[in-house]
Sequence to fold (130 residues):
Amino acid sequence: MRSSIPGFFLSLLGLDPAPAVPDGFGQSIGADLRYLLRFRRCRRIPVAWRRPTAAEAKALDADPLIGRFGDTTIAVADVAGRRWSVREQDWYGWPDPPRFAWFAMEEGGVWAAADFNRWPARWQAPPAEA
Fold:
């Protein structure tokens, strides 16, 4: 808990120099708005996704941040120098979270992230598993 009301509001806006719980995800209103705007732009980019290799899937599952979201990595792509990945939930729909969790990683950190239910029209889904 923040020791002052101004400190609380600074933390909500992502302006607090020392976050209460530094998890690398940037849980603030400012970060959430940036992620939302970036996802809106990114879903307009044509992307041909591919299935992750076993090593890529294992690395994403073991990642302390990304591994918390979704149950299975179903797609990866390299777009504009960033590693994009989509993870699927085993359980989804109300009251559970949306079906897919999308991440764009840059330099070891999250550049953007979003949850969605419908695959964006400009994104080509990865081929079905054999």
In short: Residues 61 and 67 are 5 Å apart (CA to CA). The chain is about 25% helix and 25% strand. The radius of gyration is 16 Å.
